[in-house]
């Protein structure tokens, strides 16, 4: 659906990746209107039955019986960092390969709202990724240097769950091409908010909201938020 000269099809795998893990992408409605989204690229890399996208803010058992069943499955994981989350590598080592992973797609505040206001999402085991890589999604501002886009999270998670590092490289390939095309046509590299604050480059007015101001202070002082 892009102009021919910036087509991303040559950077996608010739055939959908063969994976045993099924991803459920819970997408905030606001993401649908964004021009530069990563979930369509992710879906193009995987078989349709291994990447299911559900759009909405509220998910209950009556409206989403299939999702409710998935959330109650002991082999289902939800990727959401926090104090209650276990590193994904540890979970994969300790148990047989999980069959389903839920990933929330949205800004950090949107993801937090979806996670905490839907009780279904607190049924699966909560996991997180180790902050070992920096985001390559350089055309969109991230809160910190180690925050990843939805596609990047899925790429890393699938490579761990499938025990296949090449999966990560294959899924990141179209994202790298997307960013390259955008930079060639006038886009600018977006450093993380953390980087801008620490280097005195943040040029927007500081928020008056005390909670947001406190979050910025934590970023500057290397405190996990």
TrEMBL record:
GO BP terms, alphabetized: tRNA processing
Top enzyme class: transferase
Top-level taxon of the source organism: Eukaryota
Every DTW domain range: 1-187
Keywords assigned by UniProt, alphabetized: S-adenosyl-L-methionine, Transferase, tRNA processing
tRNA processing in keyword set: yes
Reaction catalyzed: a uridine in tRNA + S-adenosyl-L-methionine = a 3-[(3S)-3-amino-3-carboxypropyl]uridine in tRNA + S-methyl-5'-thioadenosine + H(+)
GO molecular function, one term: tRNA-uridine aminocarboxypropyltransferase activity
The protein's Enzyme Commission number: 2.5.1.25
SMART domains with a match to the protein in the record: DTW
InterPro entries the record matches: DTW (IPR005636), DTWD2/TAPT (IPR039262)
Family: Belongs to the TDD superfamily. DTWD2 family.
Protein's recorded name: tRNA-uridine aminocarboxypropyltransferase
Gene designation per UniProt: Dtwd2
């Amino acid at each position: 659906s892009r102009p021919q000269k910036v087509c991303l099809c040559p950077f996608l795998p010739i055939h959908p990746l063969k994976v045993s893990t099924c991803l459920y992408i819970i997408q905030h409605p606001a993401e649908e209107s964004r021009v530069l989204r990563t979930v369509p690229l992710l879906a193009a890399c995987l078989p349709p039955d291994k990447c299911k996208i559900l759009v909405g803010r509220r998910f209950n058992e009556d409206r989403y019986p299939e999702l409710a069943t998935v959330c109650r499955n002991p082999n289902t994981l939800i990727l959401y960092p926090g104090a209650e989350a276990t590193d994904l590598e540890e979970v994969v080592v300790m148990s047989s390969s999980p069959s389903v992973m839920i990933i929330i797609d949205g800004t950090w505040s949107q993801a937090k709202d979806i996670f905490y206001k839907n009780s279904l999402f607190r049924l699966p085991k909560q996991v997180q990724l180790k902050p070992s890589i920096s985001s390559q999604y350089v055309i969109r501002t991230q809160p910190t240097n180690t925050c990843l886009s939805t596609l990047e999270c899925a790429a890393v998670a699938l490579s761990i769950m499938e025990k296949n590092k090449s999966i990560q490289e294959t899924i990141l390939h179209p994202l790298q091409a997307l960013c390259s095309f955008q930079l060639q046509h006038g886009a600018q590299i977006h450093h993380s908010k953390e980087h801008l604050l620490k280097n005195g480059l943040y040029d927007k007015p500081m928020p008056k909201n005390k909670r947001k101001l406190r979050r910025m202070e934590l970023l500057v002082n290397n405190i996990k938020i």
